[in-house]
Specification:
The protein is an alpha+beta fold. The chain has helices at residues 16-23, 63-70, 84-92, 100-103, 142-148; strands at 4-7, 25-31, 34-40, 43-48, 51-58, 73-78, 108-111, 114-117, 122-133, 156-168. It has one domain: Electron Transport, Fmn-binding Protein, Chain A (Pnp Oxidase, Chain A, Roll), CATH 2.30.110.10. It has five helices and ten strands; from the N terminus they run βαββββαβααβββαβ. The strands form two sheets. Strands 1, 2, 3, 4, 5, 6, 9 and 10 form an eight-stranded antiparallel β-sheet that branches. Strands 7-8 form a two-stranded antiparallel sheet. A hairpin with a 2-residue loop joins β2 and β3 (34-40).
Amino acid sequence: MKEKKMILPAELLESPFTLIGKEWMLVAAEKDGKVNAMTAAWGGLGVLWGKNVAFVFIRPQRYTKEFVDAADTMSLTFFGESYRNMMNYMGKVSGRDEDKVEKAGLTVAYEGETPYFEEARLTMIGRKLYAQELKPECFVDGDSTDKWYPEKDFHTMYVIELEKIWMAE
């Protein structure tokens, strides 16, 4: 088990563009006693409604969406480049087909009701504040819908309040 140090959101000095867009994250939640997670490379960190938040986007066909919708909380975990193969696997294989968390060799731990992974170098625990499906009529840049949504499978955006952040020491 990695030793972890709790940090405040303002103490996170890493670029969210690198964390989410380059390193990627696992989004994990629990439903009916089972944990599922998926790799995500879209999202953000910021301040909304006077709270430190993360923005997470999940397509409707992703199995993890069922878990996120059923739970009040979720975790976002970051692993670093040495875990790239695991992150690829977690993004390509569905938890409907196999226990991909176990097969990936991840150790599930809990912060209260929220599952996360012991192997992560950075863990964010968040409580859902808001969820809304993206709507085609709301896109100002119409090219985005054609490029990113040819199947019209628009993401649901979740806004979560960051309750805890840990970094591996």
